[in-house]
Write a structure and sequence with these properties.
11 helices, four-stranded antiparallel beta sheet, binds flavin-adenine dinucleotide, alpha+beta, seven-stranded mixed beta sheet, 3 domains, FAD/NAD(P)-binding domain, 22 strands
Length: 448
């Protein structure tokens, strides 16, 4: 590798705030709102043209249930519920409470606008089209981050920093211990399709004719769009890539778009003659499920999650099942809290069903929801820094459940509250009482 030397120069400070959030998915936005509502001055940096992350730029429109298994008690509320209520007022969400896992189908375009609105209402300083590029530290504290946008390079100074970039770009530059799972869940490029097709017919089509257009038999899904004839398609994956790497990310975007056209070509040739198939809109960012994870004081693990271990300083309640997309014969594995376990290989290839509770000879009632303690978002080294989102410290299986948005939204909220409390008490993050964070979350509307 050859290097050049970048000449030193003075960088202007474009914002001086209490909390700086880097990355503007709902994880980041909800962190920003929580801190702002408690009185902090907050800035948020997002590299795309809107907030929402995978839920908007990736077109992924499903938020899972806010209730426990059996739909008896509401276990998730806070800003997730608030956003759903806001979307209801603009016809921006379709609610399906009968489905055990898919509960809320969002209009991702309306979500973009609602996120703009909450940012404005809470007087958060927004930076769109702005890329985080470097972090500056003084011993165990971060003092500022460098950003790049149309104004060139500038700095944001803050008392506390939250990395909600998904990949953990700030954590990477801080050299926090990291690791990668043996099988990294592959990305998918989502798109809106005009023209109806039954999933079972599409599966047959791919099995018999997919090779004509370069499509593997792959496990995928689709979802309805609010008040629309269009369908969200998530049929394929790009395998063997790690999307926090610039070249893999570039090639994944291009391969993802190739797959979209291949699917539409297949439908035009073998789909229903009565339907007009068209590719209407492609994601503006490939949906990344997983890259790297960063260590904190608590690693989430499969058994605690599936058995529903409870914590007095819990900052997350969840029910979403373990859901692991894997490269092994283009498969997916689900494990429910009830014990049910199934692996599909491709859309049609084969299916293996089991029960993990029976395998472990577990008797008694199954857990109706799981929790995660505050220590999961507390790092070991930096006093004024939290990384929150899909870079979560978790084994591969628990990550499969925790990675969904209704879960990460809650961790974002916890990060925002913790940032405020650390500033307000003038203490290091590591000195905060998790129970105190939990109480503040509850006061702000969480169902913990
Ligand atoms: C195809 C697919 C389908 C899925 N299906 C579902 C589903 O149905 N329901 C569900 O709940 N979950 C689903 N998930 C999982 C879920 O969407 C993600 O795990 C979750 O959105 C990750 O949230 P995050 O905040 O960690 O990261 P992201 O949503 O990736 O957000 C990170 C944000 O940071 C910004 N950013 C990154 N780097 C920088 C930088 N250097 N400077 C500035 N900004 C930066 C990004 O632009 C982005 O807005 C799916 C994921 C994928 C990929």
């Amino acid at each position: 590798m050859e290097y050049i030397v970048e000449p030193a120069k003075q960088i202007k400070v474009c914002a001086d705030v209490d909390v700086c959030v880097i990355g503007g998915s709902c994880t980041g936005v909800f962190a920003a709102i929580r801190a702002a509502r408690l009185g902090a001055k907050v800035a948020i940096v997002e590299k795309q043209n809107c907030f929402g992350g995978v839920a908007t730029n990736g077109l992924v429109n499903i938020w899972h249930s806010l209730y426990d298994i059996g739909n008896k008690n509401q276990i998730i509320a806070g800003l997730t519920e608030e956003m759903i209520e806001r979307l209801k007022t603009v016809d921006g969400v379709y609610v399906d409470l009968k489905s055990p896992t898919h509960a809320y189908y969002l209009n991702t375009e309306e979500l973009k606008i609602e996120l703009d609105n909450v940012i404005k209402e809470n007087r958060i300083i927004p930076f769109l089209h702005t890329f985080y590029s470097f972090v500056i530290t003084d011993d165990k504290k971060i003092t500022s981050v460098l950003i790049e946008n149309k104004d060139g390079r500038s700095a944001i100074r803050a008392k506390f920093f939250i990395d909600a970039t998904g990949d953990g770009d700030v954590a990477r530059d801080l050299h926090i211990n990291s690791y990668q799972h043996d099988q990294v869940q592959p990305p998918s490029a989502c798109f809106y399709l005009q023209g109806k097709i039954k999933n079972s017919d599409l599966a047959d089509m791919i099995l018999h004719h997919g090779s004509e257009v370069g499509l593997d038999d792959d496990w995928g899904w689709s979802g309805p769009l609010v008040n629309s004839e269009l369908t969200l398609r998530v049929d394929n994956h790009v395998f063997n890539v790690l999307c926090n790497n610039a070249m893999d990310l570039t090639l994944s975007e291009m391969e993802g778009r190739r797959q979209m056209r291949a699917l539409v070509t297949l439908l035009k040739k073998y789909g229903y003659p009565s339907e007009k198939y068209n590719l209407i809109s492609s994601c503006s960012h490939i949906g990344i499920r997983e890259t790297i994870h960063y260590e904190t004081n608590f690693k989430a693990n499969e058994m605690d999650l599936l058995c529903g271990t409870k914590y007095e300083d819990a900052v997350l309640n969840g029910t979403y099942r373990v859901d692991i997309h894997h490269g092994d014969q283009n498969g997916i594995t689900f494990k429910d809290l009830t014990g049910k376990m199934v692996t599909y290989y491709g859309k049609r290839n084969k299916k293996i069903v089991g029960n993990w509770r029976e395998d472990l000879s577990l008797t008694g009632d199954y857990a109706t929801y799981y929790q995660l303690p505050f220590a999961n978002i507390v790092g070991k080294e930096y006093e004024n820094f939290i990384a929150v989102g899909r870079m979560i410290h978790a084994d591969a299986s628990s990550f499969g459940a925790l990675r969904v948005m209704v879960n990460l939204n809650q961790l974002g909220e916890a990060a925002g509250v913790a940032a405020y409390l650390a500033i307000d008490g003038d203490v290091a993050l590591q000195k905060l009482q998790g129970k105190h964070v939990r109480n503040m979350l509850r006061k702000g509307g969480s169902a913990l």
